[in-house]
Amino acid sequence: MRLAKYGFILLKLTGVWRPLTWQSWKGFFYNCFTLTVLMVIFMTSLSQVIYILKYIADIKTIISGGLVELAIANALIKGITVVFKRNRILELNEILQSEICTPRDNDELFIQKQVENSVKSYCLFYIIICEICIIIATIVSIFLDIPQRKLVYNAWLPYNWQSGIAYCITFILQHFTLSFAALMDTGHDCLLADCVLQVRAQIGILKCRMKKYHLHWKKLAIRENDQINENHFSEHVKHHLCIVDFAEQVNDTFLYSIFLQFVVSSSVICADIYALTSEPLFSTGFLTVVFFSTIFIVQTFGYCFIGDIVFHESGSIYSSIYQLDWTSLSPTLQKNLLLMMCRTSRPIQFSSGHLAVLSLDSFVAIMKLSYSAYNLLKSKS
């Protein structure tokens, strides 16, 4: 697999990506594991919704119950996306392994390696941040919640969980569910980041090939009707179309994940700001809010940052073509380059419709929207 080594490891551990070599009885048991994990997370999310609707009292109650609910629901949708879009993800991997997308020399391998190192650093940083938050939240919950016989988060349960053994099982199950949801969320985001940044790698390889073949085009310019000339140029056009097609497939595959991430992030960040003003310093509620704030801000910024990188990188193809020595090229090749410039004048952009666009401007807009919503909640409370 060319895609997301670390992302697939997490997705396999959390039960939403069956190893390709697991067939027959192994595949059957893994599918049962997948169904069990998703059902447990779904029932956990449902129990929180019932609790919020049943014991709704004020804005603070809704916020305290809704923070974990939104986070778990977000992870659940991402896990379901990976399960149902499995074939599409495998097709994306096949595109990257095709002949036209495979690096052909040391310069192209260097570009590919740079992007892979960036993906590795991003994933490791993201995983470390999430794991630190999970560990801290677990330790704090053990020392603060257990003495008070409190659960990790409020949920409606069809049994009396306050008795000794029932409380222990429920407490452990909630921690496992929250940890699985966080790892599933992280694995999905690592996979998405790798897919998006692979577009950047292919753009870099395309620009590298165009610069190298430019000298070759000069030699072929005197043979305007030579078929070799056309073959060289058509290869670059096909590569660019392949990049655009890959980006569109990535966008379609993760369409709902992107939209949900923006909606949930805006809601959670707004709720976190409101909750921080009402929770005692270093209390369980305060640390929970800080935990979710950190995770969602890092998530949203990561989405927007990598999308912004690809947006500007794809726009640079236009200027790379413009900077070629056109005077040494044949009229036919000049016309073809002009058509290619027109096509590359529209940068590649990842979005969910026109509502959620992966860019740093969108991140700033989310933060502003969250603060505006916080002011509205504050004025109503």
TrEMBL record:
Keyword Repeat: no
Membrane topology type: Multi-pass membrane protein
Keyword annotations from UniProtKB, A to Z: Cell membrane, Membrane, Olfaction, Receptor, Sensory transduction, Transducer, Transmembrane, Transmembrane helix
CC annotations in GO: plasma membrane
GO molecular function, one term: odorant binding
Compartments in which it is found: Cell membrane
Residue spans crossing the bilayer: 28-53, 123-144, 164-183, 254-275, 281-306
Main location: membrane
Keyword Cell membrane part of the UniProt annotation: yes
GO biological process: signal transduction
Entry similarity comment: Belongs to the insect chemoreceptor superfamily. Heteromeric odorant receptor channel (TC 1.A.69) family.
PANTHER family on file: ODORANT RECEPTOR, ODORANT RECEPTOR 19A-RELATED
UniProt name for this protein: Odorant receptor
Lineage: Eukaryota, Metazoa, Ecdysozoa, Arthropoda, Hexapoda
Gene name linked to the record: OR51
